[in-house]
């Protein structure tokens, strides 16, 4: 009795190996995330700096208010109330 064998399925060619590509995927991910973080930090810093330089007004004046303190007075001195 003859046995029928199924023809062998063609196998996909093996992907070429690139030295050092998949050896440390976590190291590559960490390096990429650090790079993106540094670039983001630089871009945000530049935007904030340019916004404070271009916009009218003074940031210190806006934060501290417009009322100057009399000379010699501090926040905790009782004689300046």
Q: Gist?
A:
Helices cover 44% and strands 0% of the residues.
Mean pLDDT: 78
Shape: rod-shaped
Oligomer: single chain
**Strand tally:** 0
Weakly predicted, low-confidence segments: none
SSE string: HH
Rounded radius of gyration (Å): 34 Å
Structure keywords:
81 residues; mainly alpha; rod-shaped
Account of the 3D structure:
The mean pLDDT is 78. It is rod-shaped and about 115 Å long. The chain has 81 residues and is an all-alpha fold. It is built from 2 helices and no strands. It has a domain of 27 residues. The N and C termini lie far apart (114 Å). 44% of the residues lie in helices and 0% in strands.
Topology diagram in text:
Elements: H1 25-54, H2 59-64
């Amino acid at each position: 009795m003859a046995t029928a064998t199924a023809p062998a399925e063609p196998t996909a060619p093996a992907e070429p190996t690139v030295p050092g590509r998949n050896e440390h995927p976590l190291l590559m991910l960490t390096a990429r995330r650090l790079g993106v973080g540094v670039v983001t930090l630089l871009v945000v810093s530049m935007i904030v700096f340019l916004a404070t330089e271009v916009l009218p007004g003074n940031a210190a004046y806006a934060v501290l208010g417009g009322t100057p303190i009399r000379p010699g007075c501090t926040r905790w001195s009782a004689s300046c109330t």
